[in-house]
Structure formats: C-alpha cells, structure tokens
Amino acid sequence: MNATTPSSSWSASARQRWRREVVEQLTLVGHLGRWILLGAASGALAGLSSFVFLEVLDRITRLRTSHGWLLWLLPVAGLVIGATYHYLGGRAGQGNSLLIDQIHQPTGWVPRRMAPLVLLGTWATHLFGGSAGREGTALQMSGSLTDLLSRALHLDDGDRRLLLIAALAGGFGAVFGVPLAGAVFALEVQSIGRVRYEALVPALTASLVGDLVVSGLGYHHPPLPQLDVALDGWLIAKVAVAGLAFGLVGAAFAELTHSLKRVITARVGWPPLRPMIGGFALIGLVGLFGRDYVGLSLPLAGQALAGDRLSFAVFALKFVFTVITLGCAFPGGEVTPLFVIGATLGAALASPLHLPVALLAAVGFVAVFAGAANTPLACSIMGVELFGSGAVTPVAVGCVISYVFSNHRGIYPTQRIHTAKGPTRIHGRPTLDEWGSRTTEAGE
Question: Does position 28 have pLDDT exceeding 90, yes or no?
Fold first, then answer.
C-alpha cells in the first residue's frame, strides 16, 4: 500500500515550486546587481567626461564672445581639425553612426582615440565660431570610454551592446541634465519603431549616475521656464499643426546636412579642405547676418522661451549656419542647434497660430529634435523634465506629430527602420525604397 498521502504529495510539489522560484529570484537579483554596477560605471565615465567638456565649453564660449577676432581663424581651425581626423582619426571619424552601428552588429571595438579627438575638435569648433552642439561629443566620449571598459572586462558581444546603449544614455542624460529622457533616448534611438527594453536597467542607471556626477561636481544646467497650460481642443489642434511644421523642418535639417556631406565629399577630394571651406562660408554669413548664429546660440532660444516674438528669419539662419558647420565635417552635435531652431521656429509660428510664444517655443524646443532623431518618447519626457508637467500634453502632441511627419529621415544615418511610420506601399509603389538599406527585420 502506498504510504504517500495527497497532502504530502502536494506539499512536496509546493516545496519544489517554491525552491525554483527562490532560485529564479536570486538569479534575477544577481543579474540586476551586475547591470546596475556596469551601468553605474558607464554613467560615471559619462558624467566625468561631460563635466570636463561642459566646464571648458562655457569658458570657451565666453572667450569667443569677448574676442571677436577668433572667428577669422575658423578656416584655419577647420583645416587643422580636418587634417587631424583624416590622418589620425580612422574609424573615430564616423562618430555617432559608429556607436549605433556597433549596437546593431558589433564588429570591432570603438576606437579609444574617439573621446579625445571629439572633445578637442568640438572645443575648437566652438572657440572659433562653428555652429554645433554638445550631444555628439558627449555620446562619443561616453561610448569610447565605456567600450574601453568592456574591453578591459572581456565582455561578450551581447553584453557589450547593452553597455553601449547605457553609454548613450549616460552621455545624453549627463550633458543635458535629463536623466529619464537620456535613458529612453538610448533605448529608442537605434531603430525607428523599437524600444530596447533589454537594456532598461543599465541605461537608466547610467543616465541617472551621469547626471548626478555632473551636478555633484558643481555644474548646474541653466533653469528653463516652467509652464502650466490650460488645455482645450482648439489649442491641441493648433499645436498639432505646428508639430507638422516641426517635423518637416527636422526632416529637412537631416536631409540637407547629409546632402551637403555627400556633395562636398564628391567635389573636394582632400578631406581637410572640407571644414576649411565651411569656415570661409560661415565667415561670409557672419558678415551678412551677424554673430548671433555661431556657437550654441542659446540666447536665441532664451528669447523665444521668455516670450519674445521672433521672425522666421531667425530659425532659418540658425538652420543654415548649422547645416554648413556639420555638413562640412566640423565635429560637435546636432541636438542643441535643433533645440534653438525649434524654439525660434515656435516663437515665429506663435503669432499666426495665435498661441502663447513661450508655450510653442517650448514645444518646438523638443519637437524638432523628436522629428530629426525619430525619438518621440524621449523628447516628450525631456519636455516634462525641462519645462514641467504642466506642458506635458502639448509637448507630447508636438513631438508625436513631428515624428510622424519627418518621414523616415534622421540625423543618424545608421539608425534602422524596425517599424514603418505609415503605409509601406502607396498606389502599389513601395515607400521605403530610398531607406531600404536601413530597414531591419522585425525580429532583430
């Protein structure tokens, strides 16, 4: 006769299940702890490098502003920067595109020289009057230093990919002071229509640590106006119309910058001459339109966010200055100029749309970047972190509409299309032919 009773059998089964659950939870704790540590290390590297970059950049901006003659040396600086990248840069010259490509398919380590090259090159660009930003520098420094850490720890390709995503988060969160947006940006930016949740823990950790390191070392991002908007359907409809314009401008920026790079590469065989030519072009533009559009041009965004009504010429000129700077291969980033372009465009659109200038400037600040980078979630969160939760709905509407109407263009050439934004065929013709090389399989 079997001595085992149903209750004792059930108890044995329950104990077995409980043991499995305990082992699973302990394994998850170990996994979580490992990625928190790795993400924190990446964030610390991002924060330290971003602090040095931002502190010196502020001093460089003041130096250029007080010594106007430095602008005349921009072509010489362009020649030196171009020659340095041509003869010493190697793969480091691919910049953010290389980082995103390595996340898609690791093929080789990110060059260690990328961090010092982009740091010194961006400082020189700003010192002599190029119209560039900060995000590209922060991402490349963080990516290069983090991949060096991966090499030292002998991480496999899968772990290395996740840590590179964390590096993007750390650099973005640290340089702009937006830790939540930094994490989501890194998860969202590699592929249109896909958020990589597998990297959530290290990305969020790196972005938070990067921001804490920058602020802990004493660098404080300038405060922006906090908005509180009374919502109604008519206001949202008007913001949606503005979002369409923001998306088209973001797409135009990406397209024209890439087109200028292609044209100047085809026409000018020796790479160091390309930024030199761009330097002469910028000096000519300064002679015609003044110095408000060189460097970061943050005072222009400040005017728009303060409620000053600006003409459409302001956003257009900053657009042109930046396309020439980046299209002619000066190092830096696209994001801060896109912030300025968006804010000043919003200030110009406010009058015909009969909307508060500060509100539409704030929406434009993040929405043009949302369209140009194809990162609507990150930019919506950034809007809340920068301008407060009172503006969350119009900011989100502007970012989403901008994202849709920027089509599949983007400032990052190696960003892939995971999910199309709309129909893939119209009247029997494929709509993604031009972007086929950037399309990924849905199961990647």
Answer: no
